[in-house]
Amino acid sequence: MKNIVILISGSGSNMAAIVQQARQAQWAEHLQARVCAVISNRPEAQGLDFARAQGIPTAVIDHKAFDSREAFDAALVAEIDRFAPALVVLAGFMRILTPVFVARYSGRLINIHPSLLPAFTGLHTHQRAIDAGCRFAGATVHQVTSELDHGAILAQAVVPILAEDTAETLAARVLSQEHLIYPRAVADFLRGLG
Ligand code: GRF
């Protein structure tokens, strides 16, 4: 069985989409994979409630309890490694990771970013796409490297930007696509592991 560990910071809707997909018989049978833990850096992350209700082990490693990024990442690694994951999935995990962390999970660490990378790395992607006059926006699943929001692209979804869009309406349209492409990209990744 291949273990998937998902890291979240907030609502966890991408995590929920992956968990729901992983419940499908096809996943368990053909991919031999399961979501074995959900870890948050924020104790109040709503996604933790969903994971608990699904009977998935959860953990909180509160970044505020650590003096440095290195110390936080070391504690995070210790928690993640308890599950010997084949894949570590960042799903709205709002921490910049140290190169040591990224190197440890190299090739088995993926993220979803709410823009059509390589455009609009970083924050406020939807407002920036609107301000730039883009006609299309989207989301990207990518391998994580030590450079923020870079790394090989695994999947993308495109949505139109409408004249009346605000950052909020655009974010909702993009998020609905994230929920489709992220579970699929996770499955494709696991299939590639054989
Ligand atoms: C998503 O838009 C994701 O692309 C970004 O943060 C948001 C997280 O949403 N990195 P959720 O926590 O999965 O609901």
What key phrases describe this protein's structure?
alpha/beta; globular; 7 strands; 194 residues; binds 5-O-phosphono-beta-D-ribofuranosylamine; Rossmann fold; 40% helix
What does this structure look like?
By secondary structure, this protein is of the alpha/beta class. It has helices at 13-22, 25-31, 47-53, 69-81, 99-104, 125-131, 167-193, and strands spanning 2-8, 33-40, 58-60, 87-90, 109-113, 136-143, 153-160. Strands 3-2-1-4-5-6-7 form a 7-stranded mixed beta sheet. It has a single domain (2-192), classed as Formyl transferase, N-terminal domain (Rossmann fold). The protein is built from 7 helices and 7 strands; from the N terminus they run βααβαβαβαβαββα. The relative contact order is 0.17. Bound molecules: 5-O-phosphono-beta-D-ribofuranosylamine (GRF). 5-O-phosphono-beta-D-ribofuranosylamine binds next to helix 1, strand 5 and helix 7. 5-O-phosphono-beta-D-ribofuranosylamine binds at residues 8, 10-14, 91-92, 112-114, 139, 175, 178.
Question: What is the secondary structure topology, with strand pairs?
Answer:
Layout: E1 2-8, H1 13-22, H2 25-31, E2 33-40, H3 47-53, E3 58-60, H4 69-81, E4 87-90, H5 99-104, E5 109-113, H6 125-131, E6 136-143, E7 153-160, H7 167-193
Parallel strand pairs: 1-2, 1-4, 2-3, 4-5
Antiparallel strand pairs: 5-6, 6-7
The protein binds 5-O-phosphono-beta-D-ribofuranosylamine.
5-O-phosphono-beta-D-ribofuranosylamine (GRF) is lined by residues 8, 10-14, 91-92, 112-114, 139, 175, 178.
